[in-house]
Design goal:
CATH superfamily: Extracellular Endonuclease, subunit A
Strand content: 15-25%
Strand order of the largest sheet: 2-3-4-7-8-9-10
Oligomer: single chain
Largest sheet: 7 strands, antiparallel
Number of strands: 11
Distance between the termini: 9 Å
Radius of gyration: 18 Å
Number of helices: 3
Length: about 290
């Protein structure tokens, strides 16, 4: 765990996001620092009679891929009320038309349409789940990585707060930022095993699929958690952790034979390390957190 009052000195966050028109949630704890030139989008839904953030993205229009997605789990968004919305793939209606990616960018390329904000992360309402199928929330992933390896990290994170799972919730709220590295791509890759579409996955010398999408060499998760039953203004109630995972197709896992949760710990890193690897400033809005 990275942030803890007992570990260091207080950090003044001079890099905090300044809200602009239409950016209602940009100052939330889950939000990384915005990058000039990228497009920030908030997807909002109604739940329990109020408007809540489903997830936000920072879209890199030149790369046709999200730099990150961010969201939180709490008493409203951390429950499971619905199942996965199969075949809900759709263009992100909030992105400018010239930046929109559709299904043609994701077909017959040997890669899965991998969720960044996972479908199972947003099952508090049907509307929220359907929004996770926007192509702006998808990334080209190897089939075995998506269904047998990366999924374990996703399930581990949501188990820390979800009330209706066999493991029991540990925190009352967690803030999450996830993504794939756009500055570190999988270049000149030639697959030996076909993807779910029967096509051998491949990338060019720049790390792009045959349809022109970048294939991250690494995926990451940053988590800031507030421990249940402690006052919100107690700094030591907050903890954070990162995961840094290489995108490979030879881990040997499948949807029916997934990585064990305890083995996911080997990919845990500090937030400092994750920021160094990604160049992204995480959790900068959390002004009272301490860095070790």
């Amino acid at each position: 765990m990275e942030y803890n009052a007992a570990q260091g000195i207080e950090i003044e966050n001079k890099n905090a996001n300044i809200p602009a028109e239409g950016q209602v949630y940009v100052s939330g704890y889950e939000m990384p620092h915005l990058t000039t030139g990228n497009t920030y989008v908030e997807h909002v839904v109604s739940a329990d009679g109020k408007k809540v953030l489903n997830y936000a993205i920072e879209w890199n229009g030149k790369m046709n891929h999200s730099r990150w997605v961010a969201y939180s789990y709490d008493a409203i968004t951390g429950v499971k009320n619905v199942n996965r919305s199969d075949d809900a793939w759709a263009v992100d209606p909030l992105l400018p038309v010239e930046m929109q990616v559709d299904n043609s960018w994701h077909t017959n390329d040997g890669f899965d349409r991998g969720h960044l904000c996972a479908s199972d992360d947003r099952v508090f309402s049907s509307e929220a789940n359907k929004q996770t199928f926007y192509f702006s929330n998808l990334s080209p992933q190897f089939n075995s990585f998506n269904g047998g390896y990366w999924v374990t990290f996703e399930q581990l994170v949501n188990s820390w707060v979800r009330k209706d799972n066999a493991f029991g919730s540990v925190y009352d709220k967690i803030y999450v930022a996830k993504g794939g590295t756009l500055d570190k791509l999988l270049v000149n890759y030639k697959g030996t095993s076909p993807g779910g579409d029967g096509v051998l996955p491949a990338t060019d010398k720049d790390g792009f699929t045959s349809k022109g999408l970048p294939v991250p060499q690494y995926y990451f998760i940053a988590v800031l958690a507030h421990r249940a039953n402690q006052p919100a203004d107690v700094v030591s109630a907050y903890q954070a952790i990162g995961f840094w995972v290489e995108h490979r197709d030879d881990y040997g896992y499948t949807f029916d034979h997934q990585l064990k949760r305890e083995d996911a710990k080997a990919k845990a890193v500090s937030i400092d390390e994750l920021e160094s690897q990604t160049g992204i400033d995480f959790f900068l809005q959390s002004a009272r957190l301490y860095r070790g």
